Amino acid sequence: MEKLLKISSKIENLRKVEKLVDDLSTEYNISSDVYGNILIAALEAANNAILHGNKLDENKNVSITFKIEKDKLNIQIDDEGFGFDYKNVPDPTAPENIENVNGRGIFLMEKLSDRIEFTRNGASVLLEFNLK
User: Fold this and answer.
1) d(Cα 82, Cα 36) in Å, to the nearest integer?
2) Fewest CB within 10 angstroms: 16, 68, 100, 112, which?
3) Pick from 62, 74, 77, 63: which is nearest to 24 by CA?
């Protein structure tokens, strides 16, 4: 099964991502623990793509592909930006960053997914979740 969601770079379009995750969770009977991880990580990735990748340019799109094969869910999030240095993101748990309001998205995606992979210089992220 594969589903593609293409949204313009508006924050309110995150609701469409949430709806699709909800629908997939129901359709594939995903456990509530895994559902929560998927929802938060997918919303963080889509939010980053809208805000940082496409810089809220409504003429640019974010493409989100959901693919379920056997007991794995892969979510590929692509923006139209130039990417970023994903290998040098400040650690949000470091004492000097602990009180920062921003900067936790990638940390959360890494902790909540079973695998994360950045490509296209960070303009594309793959999140993988074990469903069983």
Assistant:
1) 29
2) 100
3) 74
How confident is the model over 25-51, as a mean pLDDT?
96
User: Which residues 6+ apart lie within 8 Å of 60 measured at CB?
Assistant: 8, 9, 54, 79, 80, 81
pLDDT at 24 over 90: yes
Residues 60-89: pLDDT tens digits? 999 999 999 989 999 999 999 998 877 776
**List of E strands, the chain:** 2-8, 61-69, 72-78, 115-119, 124-130
Beta strands across the sheet bearing 72-78: 2-8, 61-69, 72-78, 124-130, 115-119
User: What's the rounded mean pLDDT across residues 111-126?
Assistant: 96
The answer to whether the CB of 85 falls within 8 A of the CB of 122 is yes
